[in-house]
Design brief:
- The chain folds into 2 domains: 159 residues, Lyase, Ornithine Decarboxylase, Chain A, domain 1 (Beta Barrel); 182 residues, TIM Barrel (Alpha-Beta Barrel).
- It contains 12 helices and 20 strands.
- Strands 4, 13, 14, 15, 16, 17, 18, 19 and 20 form a 9-stranded mixed beta sheet that branches.
- The longest helix is centred in the middle third of the chain and has 19 residues.
- Bound molecules: ligand LLP.
- The site of ligand LLP has 24 residues, from helix 10 and helix 11.
Length: 438
């Protein structure tokens, strides 16, 4: 979890930086990423595999949680590979200097251009479906990539359900992702006959923000069975990627396993099952996103207007909202907030924190316990590192906020604040529309 401090003025500090000073310097709203917290989580994953897995392992950062140059660079510098979910994320990871050998490309509908980009970059492709498999064979055969066929993992739907929001469940059979495991024989037969493909392993991902411990054990066991099945088709698969999904603490009531508690049983199950099946240990991969970065970041906003509806509700509004954090309106996600310049003031108020968008559902937190606030106070929403910036939009043409990384009392800009000019940069006004009737 994020290490914060309260300084002598009763102000919040992150990474040794006063949050209110950061807002003065970089503007509001502002994403503030604590480098140490992110690095620590990377190390915890890496160390847990080192401790509990006897074979080779590789942790990938699922960069869909927050894909930008600086975050990819930090994860890579901790020895992590990067999971990318589109050509754009792949491009960013490459530009950040991540080596292609450590990049894995996902998506249930990669375009031909994305597949060619991936092949030429030398990253591994996680193949999702038959159409993609056939397209790959065709690309490799016609474009002369046969001398260095792309490395592939096959993504299968494990048929494991877990209790998380229905939008972020992916493991059940009725999912848009992955090959149907009922077609395993057909799939392995096809792949084993294709010299154009270099299929090295299997992948599955069962969902996100998962607190239960059993589903990933079940997944590990199922995946080893698939490895055994593949061996019957003379397919030598040496990599097993169990996906991501470990949940994080957004509020006091969330109680996820620790990183170590998540990794350990997966390693144990794979080792036991491989021993039982007399299979060599595969290289074990996983690709967490949220549990690496969610708690490493906060969003600082400036409080503006307020509204009291007697005996009903107190609203305060901030200068951002669903455009910089779409998770509350999309998944009814619950967040916690503090007031950076009033950390020592008693929490006497129950307020609903609204965004500034023209949409009544644009509520960041319902019934937050806060000190008495006034316009200009700095509200800090905790745990916004995952799926906030990466899902941000320009709804109502709000420029996207800036982001800084803080470490050792120093702050560096990692995402520049968008300007009004940025907002119309891609707009085109056809000649015949230029004369606006007044
Ligand atoms: N691998 C695959 C193939 C995935 O689809 C995902 C997440 C991950 C790894 C990383 O999962 P994590 O460790 O972050 O749980 N926007 C939603 C979450 C969508 C997750 C999409 N896939 C949210 O804000 O809750």
């Amino acid at each position: 979890p994020l290490t914060t401090q309260v300084n002598g003025h009763g102000f919040l500090e992150i990474g040794g930086c006063d949050v209110t000073t950061l807002v003065e310097q970089f503007g509001s709203p502002l994403y503030i990423l604590d480098e140490e917290t992110l690095r620590l989580a990377c190390q915890q994953y890496r160390d847990a595999f080192k401790q509990y897995y006897k074979g080779e392992s590789q942790v990938l950062y699922a960069s869909k949680a927050w894909n930008c140059l600086a975050v990819c660079a930090i994860a890579a510098s901790e020895g992590l590979g990067i999971d990318v979910a589109s050509g754009g994320e792949l491009y960013t990871a490459l530009q950040a200097g991540v080596i292609p050998e450590k990049i894995y490309l996902h998506s249930n509908n990669k375009s031909r251009a994305e597949l060619i980009f991936a092949i030429e970059s030398g990253c591994t492709i996680v193949v999702d479906n038959w159409h993609e498999l056939h397209t790959l064979v065709q690309i490799v055969e016609t474009a002369n990539y046969a001398s260095a066929p792309p490395r592939l993992l096959l993504r299968l739907t494990p048929g494991i359900e877990c209790h998380t929001h229905e939008y972020i469940r992916t493991g059940q059979l009725d999912s848009k992702f992955g090959f149907d495991p009922h077609q395993l024989e057909e799939l392995f037969t096809f792949v084993s006959q294709q010299s154009a493909l270099n299929c090295v392993g299997l992948h599955a991902h069962i969902g996100s923000q998962i607190f239960e411990r059993q589903p990933h054990r079940d997944l590990a066991a199922v995946m080893v069975q698939w490895l055994r099945d593949a061996a019957k088709f003379n397919l030598k698969l040496t990599e097993l990627n169990v996906g991501g999904g470990l949940g994080v603490t957004y509020t006091e009531s969330d109680d996820p396993p620790s990183i170590e508690e998540w990794v350990k049983p997966i390693c144990e199950v794979v080792q036991e099952a491989c021993a039982a099946e007399n299979l060599p240990l595969p290289k074990l991969l996983c690709e967490p996103g949220r549990s690496l970065i969610a708690t490493a970041c906060v969003t600082a906003y400036t409080i503006g207007s307020s509204k009291t509806i007697p005996e009903t509700r107190n609203y305060i509004a901030v200068d951002g909202g669903m455009s910089d954090n779409p998770r509350p309106i999309t998944y009814q996600s619950v967040y916690r907030a503090v007031v950076a310049n009033k950390m020592s003031v008693p929490l006497t108020e129950t307020v609903t924190i609204a965004g500034k968008h023209c949409e009544s559902g644009d509520i960041l937190i319902k019934n937050a316990q806060l000190p008495k606030t006034e316009p200009g106070d700095i509200l800090v929403v905790m745990g916004t590192g995952a799926y906030n910036y990466s899902m941000a939009s320009n709804y109502n043409r709000l420029p996207r906020p800036a982001a800084v990384v803080v470490a050792n009392s120093e702050a560096n800009l990692i995402l520049q604040r968008e300007t009004y000019e940025d907002l119309i940069r891609q707009d085109r006004l056809p000649e015949r529309l230029k004369k606006v009737a007044q």
